[in-house]
Amino acid sequence: MGNLISKKIRGFRDILPDESQKFLHIENLINNVMPLYDIEQVRLPALESANLFQRSIGETSDIVTKEMYSFDDRNGETLCMIPEGTASCLRLALENNLIYDRGPKKKRLYYISPMFRHERPQKGRYRQFTQLGVEFYGDESIHDDIDLLLLTSNLFHKLDLNDINLHLNTIGSTDDREKYSIKLIEYFHKYEKTLSDVQKKTLSKNPMRLLDTKDPLLQEIVSSAPIITDFINKNSYKNFDLILNQLNDLGIPFIHDSRLVRGLDYYNDLVFEWKTSKLGSQDAVCAGGRYNNLSSIIGDTCIPAVGFAMGIDRMVELFQYNSSRINIGFADISDKHSSISLIIKDLRELDCNFNLKIMDRNKSLTKQIKQADKEQCELLLIVGEDEISNNMFTIKHLRNDEKDRKITFSEVKDIILGHST
Ligand code: ATP
Ligand code: MG
After folding, report:
1. Which of 278, 279, 313 to mutate to test the pocket of ligand 1 (most atoms within 8 A of CB)?
2. What backbone torsions phi and psi does residue 292 show, to the nearest 5 degrees?
């Protein structure tokens, strides 16, 4: 179509039926797995006060400096399309007393939600994308860290996504990072001439952010920068070691990447990312970590937390999907419209999964058979006057040589179940 009054907006995308099926499959699987970890679903609003993200993610983060879709609404409030879910979900949990009511409470929440970031569109990087976010509140022991990592590994396993590797690191406490930042500033000062103005500003405000850079020139400089490991407090290091040992015991392979830091301010201790080599430069499918201090910023309380965000669009890109539903065609060669409507209604109420495709009843039977073949039906149920008066269908197999035969309504379900994989 050339003459539409409007086309889709740059960076946004239409998700068509084939791809949407993959989203559905992944989301169904997620919804089935979450209760096994005692995680409950919440739905986040698409708009929040811009202040929520400016204060929590950090004023110098990519999201806040250049990626937020924020605007003043008619009441003069500065609002923002949510760019990430962690701050929003914690706001929701605190505002509704889910995790604090005369004392901290444990709670596990998840959401599958569109996120909006104004970044340069490219494959695997969109301005609207879908994240699964999982947040565990109220437990500062490493049990929650381990359980969260187990969950991510389980999800990838269930989707048969094997080419994804877990990278993890500890970034210690705020104090540790302050000491480390001083060293980083010293180091990067040596390369000041190579840095852009924006990078110089980041260096003065939050030097650790430079480690997360996507600029190849800077990445080269980063590769010889001091590593955070030498600045981490004993307790954090001990806990990190325990996590690594448990992962070994559980048979979950990992890579300890001492240069891994996260682009957002609120993390402490454990940080992790799941990466694949199959998506080019958009290689991260899941990222997360511990954020014990975010509740003090958002709600002036102290609730330890650990969570992750998974990019569903990138998972869909990796995911090979073959639907187990069969296509069943329905051919009407009678004149009895009301009987046919009733039969179709009954077929739709059968308690099993299949795609029902109704052929064009104005066509001859031969043409309806051709149509069913074109629409990749495995079976065609044919109903004429004779079938209606005997309460039967004629069943035609379109993918093998089995002969046409007459069956009763109650046989239909068994046949469908027999064909589904
Ligand atoms: P990246 O380094 O790719 O920019 P990020 O650090 O900004 O990722 P997070 O904010 O941690 O990403 O989001 C978690 C996950 O959400 C990412 O690992 C990725 O799978 C997905 N994601 C982030 N931004 C986008 C985007 N613009 N389009 C599609 N998926 C995205
Ligand atoms: Mg990003």
Report:
1. 313
2. -70, -15
**Ligand 1 neighbour 67 (Cβ under 6 A):** no
Residue burial 338-376, b: 16+ Cβ < 10 Å; e: rest: ebbeebbeebeeeeeebeebebeeeeebeebbebbeeee
Task: Quote the ligand 1 centre to 258 CA distance (angstroms).
Answer: 20
Ligand 1 atom nearest 262 alpha carbon: 6
Token pair for 130? 């879908």
Q: Tell me, using a 6 A CB cutoff, whether residue 304 lines ligand 1.
A: no
Q: Name the pLDDT band for 198 (thresholds 50, 70, 90).
A: confident
CA of 128 to the centre of ligand 2 (A): 12
Give the span between the Cα atoms of 305 and 87, in whole angstroms: 11
Cβ-based neighbours of 319, under 8 Å, separated by 6 or more: 22, 25, 26, 159, 160, 161
Q: Phi and psi (nearest 5°) for 3?
A: -110, 50
pLDDT at 263 over 70: no
pTM for this prediction: 0.92
Mean pLDDT rounded to a whole number for the chain = 93
Which residue type sits at 72? D
One-letter amino acid identity for 349?
E
Tell how far the Cα of 62 is from the centroid of ligand 2, in angstroms.
7
DSSP 146: H
- The span from the CA of 314 to the CA of 318, in Å, is 7
